[in-house]
Protein: CN hydrolase domain-containing protein
Amino acid sequence: MDVQPVRSFDEIIKNNLDSEQLKEFNRIHYGRTDHCELKLQDSTIAAGKKHDFEVAAFYFEAAKEVRPPKIVKVGLIQHSIVLPTNEPIDKQRNAIFDKVEKLIDTAASEGVNILCLQETWPIAFFLCTGEREEWKEFAEAADHGPSFQFLSKLAKKYQMVIVSPILENDNGVWWNTAVVIDENGNYLGKHRKNHLPSVGSYSETGYYLPGNTGHPVFATKYAKIAVNICYGRHHALNWLMFGLNGADIVFNPAATTSNFGESFWGIEARNAAIANSYFTCSINRVGSEDFITKADQKKISRSYYGSSYVTAPNGHRTPGLSRDQDGLLIVEMDLNLCRQVKDHWGFNMTGRLDMYANELKNTVSSE
Ligand SMILES: NC(=O)NCCC(=O)O
Structure:
């Protein structure tokens, strides 16, 4: 019997439980009630159909309290590449721009305030080929490269903060970088990936160095945000530092393939949201990418499994987008929930950071 490819974990659950069971599953496993789906405009549904992308929208509420609600709408985009990887690099990039523009237009029409794209979104992820020179045009300047210019216009047009994870070229030195563009289209800052994978077919250490930007939190118009790039999600202290530095929302743009840690995907960012009392937004690439290495004509193929999702600080999470289709996930959240969860569980009071600081210092000095 042929096993059908699985479109999403949530689809399996939905198709195999009756409505009462599904309600209980959502309550126990996701902390979700039936009432957290946001209604999409007809034009959004039509845009998704026309351009072949999925759109889903949810909200997370906070309790009423003395502070006014702090409502923010975030958008996560997962997308496949468009052209074969042997096409000229500027053509490949422009084709991705065309596709992503439609998704951003749709996000804007739904009132998204902060949008994040997947890891190295404007390029085919050639970092698995071991080749560099052949693909060097994909690397670009953080604050004036083609991606910045393209997104800056959209950010300004829609008063949207946009997080743009790219392959950065800084005077010939490459970094895996997330650029933050403010709602006026200006460059606000960047974060360079702290932890580089050297596992399985992931070997990025030959391309760039571990980031040198620490754990910046960007005070945008809408929220204090940070970016934990891909493999950094396996490091609990990476998540911790963004929280200690004041983030309300941490984005995790990723490029991670099927058959490789997929079972971690739904756990790590969700756990980080609970452990650090902030929202986490996980975005994975989607689709297949084939490369023929220039040196020895070897074929390298990769498939990414999408499944982007958002978790609130109380551990409640959205379903994932599909494993195989472009998609836009929209989530409205009340940032008051961060402080509410922290206070409710007494996380600040019971934290004991000084104890950890001492033990970490001793461990590091005895290494
Ligand atoms: N790009 C990247 O960091 N990939 C690592 C894959 C993973 O950690 O799942």
